[in-house]
């Protein structure tokens, strides 16, 4: 726990001096304006909630994935990765703590998106705020777990940046960030079922609707289960990769 707390403090210090990990937040106003313009032009004001929610979800996910790659890339370049692998502290725990810190800060994207919509004359009420907040919290945790899985790939790669940007787009699609999974081609839908984001985005959208949210506890439990599974798989993969790098001594060049 002490190592995790230290990793959190380190990441907060990094954010103060180099806020580049939160670069995705700068895209939220533009994407919100674009998506709202599309719904207005199509005469679908009822889809305003979709247009406002999507940029926030995309920014949070992009932040988690990008941060996991940047942590590995910078630590490798500065020689810290080798020292961390030589220490008794688990690499997966350090990466997860740092990614979770940035992901928690990136939740500001939700408020940012809603404020931009309000400035553009669109008010999107949250009909079920408790369900919305609970889903958002569990989703952020699950995103950190997904980032831990990606970290295993980044540790093995010579350059994490070669993958971190492109990996987010399939997750946007299969996670229903803007378009619900139910509207995707039939052959794609089975691929979305194990994706926590597909369940989370549907639940977030339903929490904006005044109608009662059906089976909310069960759906929230699915997101939580998939998130915990992602964490477990991510920690296992990073631990195995770390053991391999210790044996081969190839952390500096993967």
From TrEMBL:
The keyword Transmembrane helix applies. Residues 38-207 form the ABC-2 type transporter transmembrane domain. One of its GO terms (cellular component) is ATP-binding cassette (ABC) transporter complex. Its main location: membrane. Keywords: Antibiotic resistance, Membrane, Transmembrane, Transmembrane helix. GO terms for biological process: response to antibiotic. InterPro entries: ABC2_TM, ABC_2_transport, Nod_factor_ABC_transporter. One of its GO terms (molecular function) is ABC-type transporter activity. It is found in: Membrane. It comes from the Bacteria. The chain crosses the membrane at residues 21-38, 50-72, 84-110, 130-157, 169-188, 218-238. It is a multi-pass membrane protein. This is ABC-2 type transport system permease protein.
């Amino acid at each position: 726990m002490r190592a995790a707390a230290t990793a959190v403090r380190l990441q907060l210090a990094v954010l103060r001096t180099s806020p580049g990990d939160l670069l995705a937040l700068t895209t939220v106003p533009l994407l919100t304006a674009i998506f709202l313009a599309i719904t207005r032009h199509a005469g679908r004001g009822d889809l305003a909630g979709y247009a406002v929610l999507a940029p926030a979800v995309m920014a949070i996910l992009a932040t988690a994935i990008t941060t996991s790659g940047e942590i590995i890339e910078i630590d490798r370049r500065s020689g810290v990765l080798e020292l961390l692998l030589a220490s008794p502290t688990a690499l997966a725990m350090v990466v997860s703590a740092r990614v979770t810190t940035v992901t928690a800060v990136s939740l500001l994207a939700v408020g940012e998106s809603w404020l931009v919509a309000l400035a553009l004359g669109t008010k999107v009420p949250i009909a079920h705020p408790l369900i919305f907040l609970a889903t958002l919290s569990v989703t952020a945790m699950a995103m950190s777990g997904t980032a831990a899985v990606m970290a295993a790939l980044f540790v093995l790669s010579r350059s994490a940046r070669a993958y971190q940007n492109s990996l987010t787009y399939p997750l946007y699609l299969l996670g229903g960030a803007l378009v619900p999974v139910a509207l995707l081609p039939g052959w794609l839908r089975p691929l979305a079922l194990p994706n926590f984001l597909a369940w989370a985005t549907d639940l977030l959208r339903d929490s904006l609707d005044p109608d009662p949210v059906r089976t909310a506890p069960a759906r929230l439990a699915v997101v939580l289960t998939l998130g915990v599974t992602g964490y477990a798989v991510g920690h296992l993969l990073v631990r195995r990769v770390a053991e391999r790098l210790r044996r081969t001594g190839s952390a500096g060049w993967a």
